[in-house]
Amino acid sequence: MLDLINVSYDTQIPNNVGLSQDKKVLKALEKWHPGYINWWNDLIPDDFQKSLVYLRTAVSVDPKGWAKFDYVKMPEYRWGILLAPEVEDRRIPFGEHAGEKAWQEIPGEYRSMLRRLVVIQGDTEPASVEQQRFLGLTAPSLYDLRNLFQVNVEEGRHLWAMVYLLQKYFGRDGREEADDLLRRNSGSEEAPRMLGAFNEETPDWLSFFMFTYFTDRDGRMQLESLAQSGFDPLSRTCRFMLTEEAHHMFVGETGVGRVIQATVDAMQKAGITDPYDINKIRDLGVIDLPTMQKKLNLHYTLSLDLFGGEVSTNAANAFNAGIKGRFQELKIDDDHKLHGATYPVSQVVNGVIQKVDAPALTAVNMRLRDDYVKDAAGGVGRWNRALKKAGVEFQFEMPHEAFNRQIGAFAGVPADPSGEIISQEAWDAKRNEWLPTKEDGAFIQSLMQPCYEPGQYASWISAPKVGIDNKPGDFEYVQLHMA
Ligand SMILES: [Fe+2]
Ligand SMILES: [Fe+2]
């Protein structure tokens, strides 16, 4: 009997899907593996490849004890294929097949739809590693360096997860798609990644923390909706990915929180009470709060774009088919088919932003985005409470959904962060107050000096409250190999 909880390390590729008995897929994956290792080796700067990093590796998919921590050289990390345990007699939770037995094989009629979704999800995973590839060179601490690499190896594993689905269930075109996932490259002219936000640079650590907070959270919402899928292998794959994703959200939220803390501490020490006294604050070697707000505006709005159009027939088809559900589908109290139901969608009507009732089926993207906004507000609220507690008169705000959008109903609409539509000239004149400027970027860049002493942190970020795996403050999370 196959052990589907504990991860088997008997093949080159750790897995809990019985790969050693599935010769065809094992062969296809082994063929793909060298290309993946080349991609990794070309990507991450060499000194880091040789360093020992204190990483967690999944050894089980049991939620109560799935990871072990140890020093590992990243190219030797055991990227594996891990699916959450099968739920007995699982049923398709929504759409026109609601209540039928979940599919273990791909229904022919939904093959291309499923392939598209798996490829898009798969494309984002290596893209984020590409975006973050040089950050290690300017890490503010060994703790942060380790967290960056943990996120990177897990995004690499998520690529493996999608590649497994492609190779196991989609035959030849699946293998071609798997190769293309290594061929496209973030920011490339000829072969860019599929989604806009994944072709943007992650030039500094504040961007990294904002990215993991806002953009990884989009990823989380997409995984949540795919975890509902009637195609059971996809559902199980995404459910396990979500376990890992929680750490990425943590890195983002605590990362931004620690940058705020360092700023607040420095301001208080210097006796500065006005958060807009930007030059004086910057002279302290910390990032002023208004600049952080601009970074928030940018990353948040780029992430909203990832949800696609508010009204979408593609999304309706995927829901109807039972392929991609809603956030926490099983907890929603309705017929899960959405016949005749409506959902409020924001639109520009005669120059004014209004909510208009749309068929709920075509509005599932909008609904997922609304769930995302609520979820993202949680951490922002915690940052604000910390500011209040410190007595600093500044609160972060999430801009209106119409601000700075490239996709959907508000694409090209010059709305200010409060959601008021203004003239394009007025918008352009204010742009530098709302979004990071070149000068802001250059200032942040000037702070990005590596700090590799165990237990030490760069001036612009405070120490974490607790260590990873309960390690003490001066723990050497990365044993650097310096050429
Ligand atoms: Fe991921
Ligand atoms: Fe992630």
Structure description:
With 483 residues, the protein is mainly alpha-helical. The protein has a single domain, classed as Ribonucleotide Reductase, subunit A (Orthogonal Bundle). Helices cover 47% and strands 7% of the residues. It contains 13 helices and 5 strands. It has a 3-stranded antiparallel sheet. A hairpin with an 8-residue loop joins strand 1 and strand 2. The longest helix is centred in the middle third of the chain and has 39 residues. It is globular, with a radius of gyration of 23 Å. The model has no long low-confidence stretch (mean pLDDT 95). Bound molecules: fe (ii) ion (2 copies). One fe (ii) ion (FE2) binds next to helix 6 and helix 7.
Outline the biggest β-sheet: 3 strands, antiparallel
Helix content: 40-55%
Assign the structural class, choosing from mainly alpha, mainly beta, alpha/beta, alpha+beta, or little secondary structure.
mainly alpha
H and E order: HHEEHHHHHHHHEEHHHE
Catalogue the unreliable spans.
none
For CATH, the homologous superfamily is named as Ribonucleotide Reductase, subunit A
Gap between N and C termini: 48 Å
Number of helices: 13
The count of β-strands is 5
Give every kind of bound small molecule, once each: fe (ii) ion
Compute the average pLDDT. Answer: 95
CATH architecture label: Orthogonal Bundle
What gyration radius follows from the Cα positions, in whole Å? Answer: 23 Å
Strand content: 5-15%
CATH class wording = Mainly Alpha
Q: Strand order within the widest sheet?
A: 2-1-5
- Shape call: globular
CATH fold naming: Ribonucleotide Reductase, subunit A
Compute the number of structural domains. 1
